[in-house]
């Protein structure tokens, strides 16, 4: 009985760590540590002997804050039952939107089972990760007009034309639901949103400081106007100049704006109109996104997180640390000291960044690293390390992303292993049965 309980998942909000051969347990909800296994409370009598050592003190880092958030989410939602989502890859956005947007928050917290039409795989976590990843890519496609890249091409802001789209509020509400679901189910999105979006999802209202993420020069200029004692001779009018293709165009911020000078008396109105010109179109879509997200994740549970932290929770990290992955890898039927494994790690260490993300997607269903690093990779029932297993037959490397598992045959040639691995990670799509 005790042995079977010790193999059971830990209660929500708990972790287990081993330091110098000693195992202890971490309770993120009350920020404490103990040697007593929470799975055995009420079953095994605690020892009356006073331990000679005490467990390490609790450290409040981002990972701990995330575990506390997840525990509170699961405690406040009645997440019983299953939610089956059947979609086609060709109509992924439409299928997902038609189903998810009509569901309530409790239903969205149920155990996810994703199925892609025409694919035989069973969802033990990998297909769910694939669904979140693929859907986040779909919503940021340029032709959707939901989001547009910033001037540097690094992050997405809400597209200026988004509020003119049919049913735009419903679609942005759905995107908010998707963010909330990713947070609740501990899945990662590939959504390089601007800090404006993350900050507003946490309750901020679009304002002058947000303009720095869209047009840094304009933001600096407006701050100078705001702080200046006298702007009467700055030769400013109620208009902004923008590049449209190869031409520059003056856009009036109010009727006859080009003829209205900015003065000490009206400069605050001018600043507000400029900010509204660049950010005003984002307000309603952001309100819809926030409402959809809060259906799944109540706003009061996010109060202790910064925008940067919340982005990490939803999107993970793009940095793939090979040494961290190697330190958190298990092996089945193959020795870490074998030539095949040595060559594998050498090959991974020389891969380009795009290939590394393709590899991670191949073996886990996601291109991102979770908060806390690879030791916190998850399967369908909780933490599950990356595993390399001996493949009994020859052929290309295969993966089971639901189990974070890579299967490798024994190789006698490093170059052959490299070419097979690269082919597998770049040419394989879809799911089959294990």
Structure in words:
The protein has 434 residues and is α/β, with parallel strands linked by helices. Helix content is 37%, strand content 15%. The protein has a 4-stranded mixed beta sheet with strand order 10-13-15-14. Strands 1-2-3 form a 3-stranded antiparallel beta sheet, with no helix packed on it. Strands 4-5 form a two-stranded parallel sheet. A hairpin with a 4-residue loop joins strand 14 (398-400) and strand 15 (405-408). Helix 6 (168-184) runs parallel beside helix 10 (283-296). The longest helix is centred in the middle third of the chain and has 17 residues, at 168-184. 29% of the residues are buried. The model has no long low-confidence stretch (mean pLDDT 89).
Output the number of helix runs.
Answer: 15
Residue share in β-strands: 5-15%
Order of helices and strands: HEEEHEHHEHEEHHHEEHHHHEHHEEEEEH
Distance between the termini: 31 Å
Give the neighbour order of strands across the main sheet: 10-13-15-14
Brief synopsis:
The protein is an alpha/beta fold. The chain is built from 15 helices and 15 strands. The strands form 6 sheets. A 4-stranded mixed sheet has the order 10-13-15-14. A 3-stranded antiparallel sheet has the order 1-2-3, with no helix packed on it.
